[in-house]
Design goal:
Blueprint (H helix, E strand, L loop, with lengths): L1 E4 L8 H14 L4 E5 L5 H9 L5 E3 L3 H14 L2 E5 L6 H9 L2 E6 L3 H21 L4 E6 L7 H12 L12 H8 L12 H15 L4 H8 L2
Bound molecules: adenosine-5'-diphosphate (ADP) and magnesium ion (MG).
Adenosine-5'-diphosphate (ADP) binds next to helix 1 and helix 7.
Length: 219
Amino acid sequence: MVIALSNSKGGVGKSTLAVHLAVSWHEEGRRVALVDADVQGSSSLWLHEAEPQLPVFRLQTPDDVLEQAPPIAAKFERVVIDGPAGLSEVTRAILLVADTALLPCGPSVLDLRAVHEALRVVRQAQQIRQGPPVPLLVPNKLQVQYRLSQELLETAKSLGIPSLPGLRLRQAYADAAGQGTVVWRLGPRGEAAATELKSLFQELTAYESPNTQRRAANG
Ligand SMILES: Nc1ncnc2c1ncn2[C@@H]1O[C@H](COP(=O)(O)OP(=O)(O)O)[C@@H](O)[C@H]1O
Ligand SMILES: [Mg+2]
């Protein structure tokens, strides 16, 4: 199963989610790899500190993604692809190889607009492939007391795509990135973040594609 972190906007939490997802599955004992398709390379550097044994591939061009992601996916149970910001050719290539496209979205008007744009490109990939990727919204940096956060949760409903449980704006996420670790290794100050992430991951597994199940069944 290939899970892509995709959105037209930077700073919405793609790399944060990619690293936490990969480490979480690795800790569960699954064979997981990370594909860092962002030239900035932030998730590969971060993961190298957090979990040095976890295989990381840096694929930086659309050709690399289209040619190398499928054989990587065949070798691993789970592949997490961290995408770049923008609806570039790399993003489009990622959407042609992913089973699931997670679309993180922060609580701003610009972020909401970016999700609309990203979703358009997801729909194009779905048309070409006559099926996947399955888009899932991930509301991020939520501050429940603010109107825009409420608006984001409402918009999530109106986009017509399923939404995973959102993540609150928490210092722990920034701390984890700064220290090259994951929130559940930060002790008590990472606890709330760890809890909300785990429930997000749990919900995500409900969307596993029949493809994975077939591959898993064939051992
Ligand atoms: N829920 C959150 N609460 C607080 N800070 C967050 C949260 N999610 C992400 N961040 C921070 O926002 C910044 C951008 O996140 P990042 O994952 O790098 O986004 P992207 O990969 O989409 O550009 C980072 O500094 C990160 O630590
Ligand atoms: Mg990033």
